[in-house]
């Protein structure tokens, strides 16, 4: 039982009785990776108290054996994963009622269950694996820390390269090269490099805009290590910061610090969000903080829990969450400062080691 | 009617009668972008012969106005897109039967339709927009050509930087930086840089493996321009190629050339696949070409049509497809050469301008 994947499968199987199902069909690839270690892009997994059966296609024959070992019975299907599923399920005589992941099954595939899987009863389930994933174990935490180290070292290498006249895309390229050089397996989401007035767009993509003296330069990006993500944002000024830039950066920095130190497992997502939001409101910028404070991260860059005004659930001990307050003044610019924080038994631990002071570039 | 998006919406609306629906709920973001130009990550679109209603959230208020103009009625929803949908539909008294995209709607959201949208009849549809997207217009073709130019110029800048001892991740970083410097908006898929024996894995990701003298180096990557993708593969040798490397590369190069010159609109995907496959089989490597010949590309890097042994449909005139034969010898290495090809009225036009001769690096 020292293999964390075996513990996870057992914990999931324990929960299936409460969900009134004999087994669960897992279709989320992130959930499959969490439970079995398989990192390919084509798989179906069936889990019960007695069995774990993983179905993939011939392209992954070598990889799946290496990654999964004897943790699950592996089936390589020549035709389609679904044909393989019917075949495998037919051999499990105790199975009558099967849960499926309502948030990870397309209607098209739901129709397959009804049409070709009619000999079983199918029951929608929600977040059975996601709830387990919210509490990171020591191994997962270590991987997220490595992904944070990759991200911050890449940022250190990138900032000195920024010059007036470079485009946002060029800065993104320098940053992404540094991420690769530091060993990032991939980019968990499209890197955002947003300059000047574009830094006020909370969902900017990097563009051909050339950086000007006096611009805010917002970089929101992440690294990936053994499937686990980091998600970091810093906002610098190109050249000398104005008083107003400095004042707004200061409010965001304090909101970030208060929330990162004040967030606790057991608190609701709403109360965590309020730590930063109340401070920003007090300082008169409440209208300009238009998104929520943060989200969980792990195998996916957005996962449970949510830190938001509408999040009534308690934050699980062991969760890793982003703390990312921002202030955005349309047409002028915006500041966001984002760290990843582990909610440990003794309080929060900030995983992102990079100055939060305002950096003036060049 | 000169706006291509208006033509697309009209063409879609014309097809709705045949599908026996009064309107279509579009949930695929690529389909929404194709029909309206909106590039955000949160939207629902309703289209009928009389109306086009696009629902998004407050984060995209500015962007959607710029991108969509008066092509659709825009609704910014404070609560959720779904609440907005019920509200908008309730105002369209002629609507009774609504199609939805079975391949782009999660079961969770399908349940919403039944529970909260019970005053309408919901009918699954398949590929109504995808079929339109298969035939590219002149504007789309021009964007794919730009994306091809970005990709090939980036490859030109990258190959001279490759040195023995670099890791695959470092080469990926150099390539991705060059893509950004050439203006790529993003990476349509995770770049594959696979060296030595890893080049034999058709679904390799870039790894920490250090490149050795004599290795095959396979690079499979793409660029993005105004949402449109390119998808290119070349395989070089680090140092001097062996006779066997040269022989296998030669077979793949000839298969690529024969298929790229021989593929035609109107041909089935199976017959197109067979051009390359028959040649590779004749040369005795049939067992080592384990994937299909290619796929359509456009706003997505994998879209209709398929060029594969199981693809019975005729290739549409105006499609852009990849031609990517490969030979993979497990444990030794593999070669793939991939170009993007436009299926015009007068025959195929190759959009990827980069030598297909075997390159020896360093």
What does it look like?
Two copies of one chain form a homodimer. Chain A is α+β, with helices and mostly antiparallel strands. The first copy, chain A, has two domains: 4-133, Creatinase/prolidase N-terminal domain (Creatine Amidinohydrolase, Chain A, domain 1, 3-Layer(aba) Sandwich), CATH 3.40.350; 135-361, Creatinase/methionine aminopeptidase superfamily (Creatine Amidinohydrolase), CATH 3.90.230. Chain A is 35% helix and 22% strand. Chain A has ten helices and 19 strands. Chain A has helices spanning 4-18, 29-36, 61-68, 81-90, 107-116, 128-134, 138-158, 168-181, 243-262, 269-282; strands at 23-26, 44-47, 52-56, 73-76, 97-101, 121-125, 192-195, 216-221, 224-225, 228-229, 232-238, 294-296, 303-307, 320-323, 326-329, 333-336, 339-344, 347-350, 360-361. In chain A, the strands form six sheets. A six-stranded mixed sheet of chain A has the order 4-3-2-1-5-6, with helices on both faces. In chain A, strands 7-8-11-19 form a four-stranded mixed sheet, covered by helices on one side. The longest helix of chain A is centred in the middle third of the chain and has 21 residues, at 138-158. Chain A is elongated. The N and C termini of chain A lie far apart (54 Å). The mean pLDDT of chain A is 96. At the A-B interface, helix 5 and helix 8 of A face helix 5 and helix 8 of B.
């Amino acid at each position: 039982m020292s293999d964390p994947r075996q513990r996870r499968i057992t914990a999931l199987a324990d929960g299936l009785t409460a969900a009134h199902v004999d087994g669960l069909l897992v279709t989320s690839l992130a959930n499959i990776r969490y439970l079995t270690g398989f990192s390919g892009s084509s798989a179906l997994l069936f889990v019960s108290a007695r069995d774990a059966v993983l179905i993939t296609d011939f392209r992954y024959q070598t990889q799946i054996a290496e990654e999964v070992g004897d943790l699950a019975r592996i089936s390589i299907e020549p035709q389609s994963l679904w044909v393989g599923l019917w075949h495998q399920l037919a051999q499990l005589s105790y199975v009558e009622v099967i849960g499926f992941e309502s948030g990870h099954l397309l209607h098209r595939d739901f129709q397959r269950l009804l049409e070709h899987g009619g000999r079983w009863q199918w029951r929608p389930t929600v977040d059975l694996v996601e709830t387990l994933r919210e509490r990171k174990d020591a191994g997962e935490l270590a991987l997220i820390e490595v992904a944070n180290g990759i991200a911050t070292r890449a940022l250190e290498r990138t900032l000195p390269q920024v010059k007036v006249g470079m485009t946002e895309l060029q800065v993104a390229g320098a940053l992404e090269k540094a991420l690769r050089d530091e060993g990032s397996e991939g980019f968990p989401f499209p890197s955002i490099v947003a300059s000047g007035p574009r830094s006020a767009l909370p969902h900017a993509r990097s563009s051909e805009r050339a950086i000007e003296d006096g611009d805010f330069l917002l970089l929101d990006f992440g690294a990936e290590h053994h499937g686990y993500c980091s998600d970091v944002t810093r906002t610098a000024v190109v050249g000398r910061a104005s008083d107003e830039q400095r004042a707004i950066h200061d409010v965001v920095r304090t909101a970030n610090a208060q929330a990162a130190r004040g967030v606790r497992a057991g608190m609701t997502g709403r109360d965590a969000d309020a730590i930063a939001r109340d401070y920003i409101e007090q300082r008169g910028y409440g209208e300009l903080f238009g998104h929520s404070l943060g989200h969980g991260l792990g195998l996916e860059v957005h996962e449970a829990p949510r830190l938001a005004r509408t999040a009534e659930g308690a934050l699980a001990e062991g969760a890793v969450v982003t703390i990312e307050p921002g202030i955005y003044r349309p047409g002028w610019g915006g500041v966001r400062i984002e760290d990843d924080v582990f909610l440990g038994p003794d309080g929060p631990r900030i995983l992102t080691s990079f100055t939060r002071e305002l950096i003036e570039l060049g």
